[in-house]
Amino acid sequence: MAFSKDFLWGGATAANQFEGAWNVDGKGPSVSDMCTNGSHATPKRITATLEPNTLYPSHEAIDFYHHYEEDIALFAEMGFNCFRMSINWTRIFPTGEEETPNEAGLAFYDKVFDCCLSHHIEPLVTISHYEMPYALVEKYNGWEGRECIALFEKYCKVIFERYQHKVKYWLTFNEINSGTTKLGNVLSTSTVKGYTGPITQVPDSMQARYQALHHQFVASARVVKYAHEHYPQFKLGNMICFITSYPYTCRPEDILEAQHQMRNMNWYCSDVQVRGEYPYYAKKFWEQNGLNIRMEPGDLEILKEGTVDFYTFSYYMSNCVGVATDAAETDGNIISGLKNPYLEASDWGWQIDPKGLRYSLNEIYDRYRIPMMVVENGLGAKDEKGPDGKIHDSYRIDYLRSHIQQMKLAVEEDGVDLMGYTPWGCIDLVSASTGEMAKRYGFIYVNKFDDGTGDLSRERKDSFYWYQKVISSNGEEL
């Protein structure tokens, strides 16, 4: 078989996109709780205060908080032996600055992890997945404030101690490299103090974003080092939004542009977290963009001491880049690019490129030589019920099948070290980029709609039964 007998098969979610119960049992507001709904045509907004008569989809989401037993049982029915989820920081520390953690929040995740383990499902926990206490945005402009490093450490030490016997695999920050993009202001660095408006129009300061990124690097390295010293059974990983960039043509200018894009989007952050140092071109990049990254003594040393054990990434699509000014553009995850004439696209304009996943796996493994895991991959689509009342999502099956086939080739033919696969949104949830329910990824349909209505009932799609066979055959039956 291509995949090892202990290969991790499962699915991925994020607390702020599916938990709901946003103010229940002592939870405080996070950045995501201040985001309204939106659509492909109309961007969601972030508001400095909650507005009346406005839908904030994370407030209820799909209410995993009250459905976790049912949902985890469905994951187990599919055959999951791994479930990627995140902890909501504001369930543990509602403002981020409390001296003692919120016991009700800790107890909730105890129940979730116990339920997973009772079904022989290994939790893979993202510590910070596109949310932080909104109080830290108001006080420190999010991660631009160095104070957040110590607050994040406190949070991590609490959850490490509490769940040391229940969780082995941890990821520090979700898609940390989204902080290199303007959209990262909201999603990752949370540098949005006082702003109300569309998330696509947040006043952008590269200085604030890259300073915030440095603070996230230091925070990640500190907690990785701490975990290695105190909990040797833990495995710590990074998480990168991997955007494969091809040159639009074979013009040398396009080749250089693609190389530049791969460096800035993909390697800048992972070099720090895997190699323990900024890449050689970082100082030139800072100079060219007028950035002054403030560091304190010991920062560079801790980056070297807190490198991760394995590399994880999301892969949805690829982009073309080049110097052409008349080329058509296409939408994408975090960033857009030039349209590749050889690829089809999803309903949301994301280009579908399974072979790009094989290419990416080889590029990453060639650079770092540590175990890898694809922790997000999937097709957002407008699922509609057929005459029989069922979801026949053959398009999703086709998408996932083609990507798993390329993973197999990367392992069998190329020799990469791949430890697991958790496709995104294994159950329908709120879209991070658009704030809508209509963009569905799940194997499980949730009766919840863009206007906030729906009874939250769960139904198996065709892809549910297909993925069940994939897992039971360890990827041989596709």
TrEMBL record:
Pfam families: Glyco_hydro_1. GO terms for cellular component: cytosol. This is 6-phospho-beta-glucosidase. InterPro entries: GH, GH_1_N_CS, Glyco_hydro_1. Its EC number is 3.2.1.86. Keywords: Glycosidase, Hydrolase. GO terms for biological process: carbohydrate catabolic process. The keyword Hydrolase applies. It comes from Candidatus Flavonifractor merdigallinarum. GO terms for molecular function: 6-phospho-beta-glucosidase activity. Belongs to the glycosyl hydrolase 1 family.
